[in-house]
Structures are given as structure tokens and as C-alpha cells.
Please model this.
Amino acid sequence: MKTSRPGSPSFSINHGHDSSRIGRDYPPGLPDREVLDIAHREQRILITNDKDFGDLIFQRELPHTGIILLRLPLDSTAQQKIAALERLFATHQDQLFRYVVVTPRGVRVR
Model:
């Protein structure tokens, strides 16, 4: 869904997942709530760097299929983001359907 480069088809297909991307597969500029609705309807985990999705699921209690919030430095390279996601997939596979925050220091699951 709304992703950084790690959500690109080449990354996800190599890891046994398919992906879609806002701006490529859906009109750019969709409101966050609509992005979340699409992800939930299609049973997709949303990978994003936008904290607003946490507000939607915790304050408004909207349904979701999982959100991965990348809280990495703004100057992180695509390779660094991919490495962070690979670590997450290797260590937290059973928790990906929750709200997961990935930081340079590690992973938090809510």
C-alpha cells in the first residue's frame, strides 16, 4: 500500500509477497482513512512512515490488517529500509497483523 521503496514489487516478490502502491495502483493523494480502508478490504499490511495511521486505529478504532510504521532517519537509504524490514520479517512474523513500529533501535509491537 502506501510504502517506501521496500514496498516495491521487486522487494516484496522476492520475499514471497505481492504488493500494491498508492500512486501506482491507486490514485495519488488518497486520504489516509481511504488508504487504510483499501488495505483492510484487500487484507494487506500497510507499510508507511506516516504516524497518522496510528491515530486512525487507536483513537478512531478503525479496523486494519496490520500496520508497519517505519520510524527511520529521513536520510535512510532504500537498502537500510529493506534491511530493517528483513529483520522484522525474520523476528516478528507472527505479529505483522498488529501495529508494529520499526526504529533504528529495534521493534515495538502494540
